[in-house]
Amino acid sequence: MTATETREDAEVKRAPAPLRLWRGSTLLRHLFWSALGLLAFYFLSISLDAFDNLQLAQICYMAIATAGLTVLSGLSGQISLGHGAFVAVGAYSAALLLEHLQWPLWTVLIAATVITGLLGALVGVAAARLRGPYLAGATLALAVGLPSLADYHGLRDVLGGANGLIVTPQPPPLSLGESFPLERWQAWIGGLCLVIVLFLLANLARSRLGRNMRFVREDEDAAALSGVHVARTQVLAFCVSAGCAGLAGGLFAMVNNLAAPGAFTLTLSLSLLTAAVLGGLGSLAGAVYGAVLVTLLPNWSTNFAQSAQLPQAIQSNIPLVLYGLVLILVIVLFPGGIQSGVRRLARLLRPSRRPTTTVMERR
Q1: 6-47, pLDDT tens digit by residue?
Q2: Range from 62-66, 228-232, 343-347 carrying the lowest mean pLDDT
Q3: Rounded to 5 degrees, what angle do the CA atoms 236, 240, 246 make?
Q4: Buried (b) or exposed (e) across 225-264, using 16+ Cβ within 10 A?
Q5: Domain boundaries, given as residue ranges, for the chain
Q6: What is the pLDDT of residue 341?
Q7: Where exactly are the transmembrane stretches of this chain (predicted)?
Q8: CA nearest to 80, candidates 248, 218, 277
Q9: Backbone phi, psi, residue 165, to 5°
Q10: Is the pTM of this model over 0.90?
């Protein structure tokens, strides 16, 4: 053991080969957690009724879009207030492909991801020249203007105008049985897509591109001097993030059987950003926590207001009040988001270890 080697380093070297492989392979750990996540999702979905499975599917596409926004804002440091526009592009792409070309569902979802990712690359080229509030303002204009194109005179016949496009539900495979619930099948598709996206993004964050994104986020000048192509890195971050939003849009059209401008207002973009901040900006697990809160909290607050038999004028405002209270509580108690609170709790519950000392310190 060298003078600078710690006791933990020596323990790792003396550990069996499978344990050394586990500790040294990020890909292996991500595969393990992905398989565990799929298994947990399966048991959760079969224990829920049709309505709860529908909500589970909604959480999945919200979590996918939030995870993409987490990569853009948390990892790369670019602020976007217009991710709802990318979700709209994915939803309309999926709706058009399903209704006019009758492509298989998985092909449609991949195509929606690619189409929206390419659009994100184009937006990223322009965004790479903007910083701070200018970038936020540009993406905000995108969120407001892009969905309204569906009601444009030249595109009204293709995109359905203000009423949007109706998407025919894709039935479950006959191998699952004729009585298999459609909502559970949609939840399974959403859950599989979510796990795949989290797996890919987790590996991206640990890759060279992910390190470059963090470097650009911290100091663009230092990153450029170190040989990192700043503009290319920012464009790739926009492309990846938009692709995730496009996949979420395709799942949105599949689950809700609709792609309409009214579903992709500025509120959606702000909800995605709120979910990312609540869960912990830069944390993929936090993206899931935030998506759960943003999806379920309005329904919970509405049910609470109705069960309390409050006047109608108060019932309509209860969801907004509770939404604001939860947002304030999370920010005050966990400034780094819910995931930071989970990590803090894990450190408190973890058994304390004796501090490691080097050979030179013991001498």
Answers
A1: 454 455 455 555 545 445 577 888 898 999 999 999 999 999
A2: 343-347
A3: 140
A4: eeebeeeebbbbbbbbbbbbbbbbbbbbbbbbebbbbebb
A5: 22-264
A6: 81
A7: 30-48, 54-72, 79-98, 104-127, 134-150, 185-205, 235-255, 275-297, 318-338
A8: 277
A9: -115, 135
A10: no
Give the per-residue SS3 of the chain.
CCCCCCHHHHHHHHCCHHHHHHHHCHHHHHHHHHHHHHHHHHHHHHCCCHHHHHHHHHHHHHHHHHHHHHHHHHHCCCCCCCHHHHHHHHHHHHHHHHHHHCCCHHHHHHHHHHHHHHHHHHHHHHHCCCCHHHHHHHHHHHHHHCHHHHHCCCCHHHHCHHHCEECCCCCCCHHHCCCCCHHHHHHHHHHHHHHHHHHHHHHHHCCHHHHHHHHHHHCHHHHHHCCCCHHHHHHHHHHHHHHHHHHHHHHHHHHHCEECHHHCCHHHHHHHHHHHHHHCCCCHHHHHHHHHHHHHHHHHHHHHHHHCCCCHHHHCCHHHHHHHHHHHHHHHHCCCCHHHHHHHHHHHHCCCCCCCCCHHHHC
138 burial (CB, 10 Å; 0-12 / 13-18 / 19+) is middle
Per-residue model confidence as pLDDT tens digits over 298-336? 888 777 777 777 677 676 677 777 777 877 888 788 878
Residue 253 token pair: 């059209």
If you average pLDDT over each of 51-65, 151-165, 259-273, 333-347, which comes out highest?
51-65
Instruction: Give the integer Cα–Cα distance in Å for 217 and 157.
Output: 43
pLDDT tens per residue across span 178-217: 889 999 999 999 999 999 999 999 999 989 998 999 998 8
